[in-house]
Amino acid sequence: ATPVSVMVGTGKAAELGVLFKSGTALEGLQATQVIALDKTGTLTRGQPELTDLTLVSGFERGEVLRLVASAEQDSEHPIARAIVDAAKREGLSLSAPESSQAVPGFGLEAVVDATRVQVGADRYMSKLGLGLADFGAQAEQLGDEGKSPLYVALNGQLAAILAVADPIKDGSREAVAALHRQGLKVAMITGDNVRTAQAIARQLGIDQVQAEVLPGDKAKAVRALQEGGQKVAFVGDGINDAPALAQADVGLAIGTGTDVAVETADVVLMSGDLRGVPNALALSRTTLRNIR
Ligand code: ADP
Ligand code: MG
Questions:
Q1: Least confident stretch, 1-15, 187-201, 230-244, 250-264
Q2: A GO term (biological process) for this protein (predicted)?
Q3: Is 38 tagged catalytic?
């Protein structure tokens, strides 16, 4: 590879808001056959809103929302902010939790006003040995609408189902279409539930979905895509995404994402706009063509 064309290529990319950390990254990207993307914060804005809350009979809406929002106050998960904002908008005054801890990949457990509050995905309720009462059909419908259903247990009793929805970013759909035109397969890897992930993938035209992937297993999901020697690039933003960014043949981080993701990646998309990915790929291809 001539160092000059690589320098020109990285320079042009920088003008487009794509930072290649090395010439090797620029040379490597053109060989990509599959692009895998994280969902939350990468394809979607990462700023979900609370859209639904249905109670088990006997529970009171204001009190359930107040307890859950109090529990979520110290969490940095985007879901936590959605719930806290909704409670504040309704004028509920929150209590400082006596304790609060994430259950990674499952949800959150806290004690608020001497009440044990557990909130998270359906698999978290299964882990706790709790049934989902009559919420099954509703959860499926929420998922099909692209919303993420969550469950709340208070003192070990199922109290409510709620849902958050995270809007798709401007440019995501176009980026997927451009990658298809460039001949790539596009996959999504997410911790979110299957129906929700499939609904979002459908809206975006994504070919393949791996959902309900636990935080420690995202790298394994990338490795599965690499089977048979396929070259895989991964795009992500979260702390959870760092191992997958490292495992991929090329890792691309969203510049506004977490420091760990940005540090681990080979390429940084300065804006969150995913159209940077097909642009970067096109540049990588042009650069290599000039070298050969
Ligand atoms: P992702 O960021 O892809 O959603 P996570 O591993 O962070 O992956 O979370 C997996 C799932 O666990 C979430 O989709 C959600 O259902 C649940 N969860 C995680 N953190 C929280 C939280 N603070 N409050 C409620 N649910 C949570
Ligand atoms: Mg993310």
A1: 1-15
A2: copper ion homeostasis
A3: yes
pLDDT digits (tens, 9 = 90+) for 61-81: 999 999 999 999 999 889 999
Domain with 285, as residue range(s), is 3-45+168-291
- Phi/psi of residue 158, nearest 5 degrees: -60, 130
What residue owns the CA closest to ligand 1's atom 8?
A: 191
The answer, yes or no, to whether ipTM is higher than 0.85 is yes
Q: Which amino acid is at 129?
A: G
Kindly give the distance from the C-alpha atom of residue 239 to the centroid of ligand 2, in angstroms, as a whole number: 8
Both tokens of 174, joined, read 């176009």
**What is residue 33's three-state secondary structure?**
coil
174 and 273, same structural domain?
A: yes
- Residues 53, 134 share a domain: yes
Q: Which atom of ligand 1 sits closest to the CA of residue 72?
A: 23
121 lines ligand 1 (CB under 6 A): yes
**Looking at the structure, do residues 176 and 32 belong to the same domain, yes or no?**
yes
The last residue of a domain, from among 149, 165, 181: 165
pTM value? 0.89
The closest residue, in CA terms, to atom 22 on ligand 1 is: 107
Which residue puts its alpha carbon closest to atom 27 of ligand 1?
107
What per-residue confidence (pLDDT) applies to 133? 83
Cα 7 to middle of ligand 2, angstroms: 31
